[in-house]
Design goal:
The protein has 3 helices and no strands. The protein is an all-alpha fold.
Length: 115
Amino acid sequence: MAALTEESRETLAGVEQRCREQAANLQNQVDAATVALSRTSTIAQQAANDMDSAARRMEWRYYLLAVSTGLMSGLLVSAFWLLLAPSVMDAAPSAKVPPVLLSPKTPPARQSNAR
């Protein structure tokens, strides 16, 4: 019986040792995963910050592009109108043109059918 008790004690000590080794191994794996997660989280946060600042810069570039396109379009249209418009002396009304032609058109007065 003493031999059986000694053998059981040795078996239990071996099982306990393997459990401690597995616990230490698992703890090392958890620590490594925590460090990797922390590192990945930091990298992802930096990437998000970089994307946010790039989006802001891109937004301002599009605003500037829209404003400069509008200004250039206005300048080109004005230049073409001035280039293609008849001279001011030709466009001035003469005394031969009746004033009715210069006034905006008004609809003729309606005649009522009431008697």
